[in-house]
Task: inverse folding
């Protein structure tokens, strides 16, 4: 009887270990999966006649874990005036896309190993009779999430990398240029009784905003400068960055590629950070290529070292008071 | 007596065999093979080759350098192509990384927030604008369509939206959301307690920008913190979704 109880206990003990082994060794492993992709060129501008086609080679590289990718084309439209875009989940317009690769097709998954690179040979064709105008697309390279994490709650990340394609269809080679300066103004003005005057303190930065609207049906590229002229003959020229302004949209145009111009957290075209005194003229001359209209805008402002002046007055008053008391 | 001992011994032996077998069977290392076949496709080879040589023909030659608009070129070929940003004088690849695509929130417990972090990295050489958007394909849900709702943060005056982060530090505020920290993130992520819900693509909500720069440098990095907190009445289950990130350069 004693022996039988002992045996039951032993079986129970082994049974417990057996179940424990189930719990420990049957857990699904969750592995970090890194996605790291690159694409070049990041931007493509095409001017094409209806009925013509061309091919462009995109270089793609996977520096992350092995991945299944899919390439597809979607339309986009400009969003805001800072060069941002809004992707559409569709493909519209008179442009046809296909891949000339032997083993890769659009909207069909393909495999890219770690460290591997490949070329997507994108054929772009404007159909016969395609209406003149601009058509904007993004080539998206998307990962295909696999069902590898299903034990716990959580999510899988799907990554997509884009490259924009700007297509102008024209039969004659002529494009419509209809630019307009929306804003050309300085900020950080002195506020006097709720009214902002074109007066700035010499110790303050002078942010300048230049926004150009494109009222035409083709993209335009501004060329020109923002010029500063002082009353004592000073002159400074800041070249504009020729960024695309898409059809029927606006864009903040910057005047130097070397700095990130943020004023109070908002992007501006240029920040003049020099110590200025006196009356200044600011103008901008902008053209959009050969035989295009030239836009001109100007403003003026007065700069005075108010803070230094007030400090000097304060020091003088204190000095007078002290000298009176001592006298 | 001897007979009984032998039976016992053989029993122990059988248990030992089963026990060892369990080790062998259940301690097998998983092999992480990518699924090469589905009802939609089949990859015949793990390597892909491009059709090199097609880059050139008698009519044209592809070039990665920047072209210039020329009336003669347009009339002869019927097109003009320019690649890259003209003002940069070189073509810089645009790259995007996600440190971990498997975001496990573990076994969710009521009133106990669960978090997980990933790092997003954008490389665009020394200049160039970009944006990264995010959206969820559905709210976190089980196979039986039980849903963890998107967070409203603490609620009341601290109710967050898809475009405005607010404080979410109450253990009695439930839902699923994210926080951002690092380079080029929206200004409403003031601290680690500020969260937003993901835009829901299944409800036709638009993706929102979570990283953007007017003039990006190298290795722009931001950390995204996922957070889920469930109520005591939330049905048990494995809640899943897919978070979609899209990185695009400017035009």
Result:
């Amino acid at each position: 009887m004693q022996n039988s109880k002992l045996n039951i206990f032993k079986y129970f003990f082994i049974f417990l270990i057996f179940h424990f082994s189930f719990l420990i060794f049957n857990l699904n492993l969750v592995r970090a999966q890194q996605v790291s992709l690159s694409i070049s060129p990041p931007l493509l501008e095409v001017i094409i006649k209806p009925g013509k086609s061309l091919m462009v080679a995109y270089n793609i590289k996977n520096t992350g874990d092995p991945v299944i990718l899919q390439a597809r084309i979607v339309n986009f439209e400009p969003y805001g005036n800072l060069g941002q875009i809004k992707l559409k989940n569709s493909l519209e317009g008179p442009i046809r896309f296909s891949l000339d690769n032997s083993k890769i097709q659009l909207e069909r998954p393909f495999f890219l190993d770690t460290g591997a690179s490949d070329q997507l040979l994108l054929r772009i064709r404007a159909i016969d009779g395609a209406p003149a105008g601009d058509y904007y697309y993004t080539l998206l390279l998307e990962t295909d999430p696999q069902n590898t994490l299903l034990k716990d709650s959580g999510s899988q990340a799907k990554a997509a990398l884009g490259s924009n394609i700007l297509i102008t269809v024209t039969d004659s080679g002529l494009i419509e240029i209809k630019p307009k300066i929306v804003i050309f103004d300085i900020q950080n003005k002195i506020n006097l009784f709720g009214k902002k005057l074109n007066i700035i303190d010499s110790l303050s930065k002078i942010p300048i905003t230049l926004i150009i609207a494109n009222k035409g049906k083709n993209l335009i590229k501004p060329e020109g400068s923002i010029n500063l002229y002082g009353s004592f003959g000073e002159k400074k020229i800041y070249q504009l960055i020729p960024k695309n302004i898409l059809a029927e949209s606006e864009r903040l145009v910057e005047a130097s590629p070397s700095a990130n111009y943020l004023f109070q957290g908002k992007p501006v075209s240029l920040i003049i950070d020099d110590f200025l005194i006196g009356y200044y003229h600011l103008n901008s001359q902008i053209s959009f290529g050969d035989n295009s209209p030239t836009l001109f805008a100007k403003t003026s402002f007065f700069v005075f070292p108010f803070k230094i002046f007030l400090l000097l007055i304060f020091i003088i008053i204190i000095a007078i008071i002290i000298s009176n008391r001592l006298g | 007596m001897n007979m009984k001992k032998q039976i016992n011994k053989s029993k122990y032996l059988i248990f030992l065999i089963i026990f060892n077998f369990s080790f062998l069977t259940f301690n097998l290392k998983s092999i992480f093979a990518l699924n090469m076949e589905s009802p939609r496709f089949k990859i015949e080879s793990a390597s892909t080759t491009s059709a090199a040589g097609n880059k050139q023909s008698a009519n044209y030659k592809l070039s990665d350098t920047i072209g210039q608009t020329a009336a003669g070129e347009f009339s002869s070929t019927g097109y003009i192509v320019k690649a890259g940003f003209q003002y940069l004088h070189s073509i810089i690849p645009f790259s995007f990384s996600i440190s971990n695509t498997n975001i496990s929130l573990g076994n969710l417990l009521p009133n106990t927030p669960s978090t997980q972090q990933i790092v997003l990295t954008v490389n665009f050489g020394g200049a160039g604008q970009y944006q990264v958007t995010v959206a969820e394909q559905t709210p976190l849900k089980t196979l039986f369509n039980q849903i963890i709702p998107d967070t409203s943060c603490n609620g009341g005056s601290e109710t967050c939206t898809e475009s405005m982060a607010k404080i979410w530090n109450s253990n009695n505020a439930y839902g699923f959301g994210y926080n951002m920290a690092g380079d080029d993130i929206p200004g409403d992520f003031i601290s680690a307690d500020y969260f937003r819900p993901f835009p829901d693509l299944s409800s036709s909500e638009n993706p929102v920008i979570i990283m953007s720069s007017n003039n990006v440098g190298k290795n722009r990095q931001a950390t995204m913190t996922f957070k889920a907190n469930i109520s005591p009445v939330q049905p048990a289950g494995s809640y899943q979704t897919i978070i979609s990130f899209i990185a695009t350069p400017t035009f």
Q: What stands out?
A: Chain B touches chain A through 105 residues (CB under 8 Å). The CA atoms of residues 38 and 44 of chain B lie 12 Å apart. The longest strand of chain B covers residues 114-123. Chain B has a mean pLDDT of 77.
